[in-house]
Amino acid sequence: MTATVEERAAALAQIADEIRVCMQCELHKTRTESVPGEGPADARVMLIGEAPGWNEDQQGRPFVGAAGKFLDELLGIAGLARGDVFITNIVKSRPPGNRDPLPDEIAACRPFLERQIAVIDPDVIVTLGRFSMARWFPGERISRIHGQPKRVGQRLIVPMYHPAAALHQQALKTTIQEDFSRLPKILGEAEAVRRSAEASDEPPAEQMGLF
Ligand code: URA
Predict the structure, then answer these.
(1) What gap in Å lies between CA 159 and CA 145, rounded to an integer?
(2) What is the pTM of this model?
(3) 163: Cβ below 6 Å to ligand 1?
(4) What domains are there in the chain, each with its CATH number?
(5) Is 105 in the pocket of ligand 1 (CB under 6 A)?
């Protein structure tokens, strides 16, 4: 039986509660707030960044600093508002000094991310930066594959540059703006993929062991 949106929101709230008290890696010792992510339980688009920065760590919310402001602008280019999408990170607590997340930190957080994906079941996942890209495109280079959707099960995964990287480099800024402008078309394709998979009774992606 399909879960109602209220049941899915409750499942996400449960995951967020677990993230807030999680002590699975060393980051819990230095964080102020963990940052579970936010957005509608039935969002069609999910965005996955790297890790909370200083502002996010203070507020417990994703992408609320300068990169977040730019992300809002990019969503606008795609005809989306922040309230339409679910935004989270590959790692839910801030690495000290904004260093790169370590493999064991990514591994410790992974079950939370997988559960969030399974509950939301988005048509499109946008990865922001190399750490979330590596989840679906191991060994790939963002400069080669940015903006190009890949079908995984019934959904499309779209690797994008990280907004923080693009913010201060005009060439990358133009590239990421162009990539986001193609998102509505990709979303249309993803909806068609899902409809045809449902018509042929294909099991959902997460039941196919792809996540
Ligand atoms: N950068 C990220 O990757 N995530 C945030 O939440 C903020 C900045």
Answers:
(1) 7
(2) 0.94
(3) no
(4) 5-199 (3.40.470.10)
(5) no
Structure tokens at 59: 């507020």
Tell me how far apart the alpha carbons of residues 169 and 146 are, in angstroms, rounded to a whole number. 16
* Cα 81 to middle of ligand 1, angstroms: 17
pLDDT tens track for 56-69: 999 999 999 999 99
Residue range 48-105, pLDDT digits in tens: 999 999 999 999 999 999 999 999 999 999 999 999 999 999 999 999 999 999 999 9
Question: Is the confidence at residue 46, as pLDDT, over 60?
Answer: yes
Q: How far is the CA of 200 from the centre of ligand 1 (A)?
A: 38
> Six-digit token pair at 159?
């690797």
CA of 128 to the centre of ligand 1 (A): 9
* DSSP symbol at 38: B
Atom of ligand 1 nearest to the CA of 55: 7
